[in-house]
Amino acid sequence: MTTESETPKTIAAEFVGADFGDRRLSRRLQTISEELEAKPNEPFPEVMTAGELEAFYRFVGNERVTPEAILAPHVDATIRRMRCHETVLIVHDTTEFSFGGLRRNLNQGKGRRRHSKFKGHFSLAVSGDDQRIPLGVLKFSSFTRDENTPTKLRRQGKAYAEVAKMASQQDRWGDSIRAVESRVGQASSLLHVMDSEADDYRLFAQLQEDEHRFLVRLCYDRRLDNRSTDTVDVQKTKQFVLAQPELCQREVKISARKREVGENRCTRSRSRTRRTATLSIRATAAVFRRPHPVEKTLPETLSVNIVSATEIDAPDNCQPVEWVLITTEPIATEDQVLAVIDRYRSRWVIEEYFKALSTGCAYEKRLLTNFHSLTNALAIFAPIAYGLLRLRSVARTGKDLAASQVLTPTQLKALRSQPRCKLPPKPSAHDAMLAVARLGGHLRSNGDPGWLVLARGFLKMLEIENVIRYLSK
Question: Which of 346, 367, 388 is the last residue of a domain?
Answer without folding.
Answer: 346
